[in-house]
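Quick one, T. Sequence first:
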Amino acid sequence: MGDITDGATGELRLSPAELAVREMLAIPSGIYGVPITPATIDQQVTDIADLIEHIAQVIVVLYEDRHRAEEKYEGRFSDLMVMHASEGAQLARQFAISKTREERHELNLAKEKLRYAEEMQKAVQNRSFGLMNIGKRISTAFGMGQR
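Structure tokens:
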């Protein structure tokens, strides 16, 4: 998951954003296992609800990280533009662009981490919905559901 092949070299690449966020999310590998009984389905749904709550907390932290990265990038960019305003807007902008590459990279990485976490949250929620649907069908099949 997350591995992609470099078209030029054929080597596998791993996303730095995925690697950083995967640990924060702490999604257990058993979440996608096949439920066997209604009790295991109920337990998995409960576990996933706790996981979704945890992921939401991670997303808040990642939003904060993104905002700090934006503030740092925009602040440095603006400072450089002001410092070189006497050279004209175009040159000042080019100078600021060339001197804020690292800040822009950190901002983009923060955005990628946030997006990865949000996509994983959707995947986990979809798993929860699927399990609830399976649980409902099993209950109905065994006559345990409401009619």
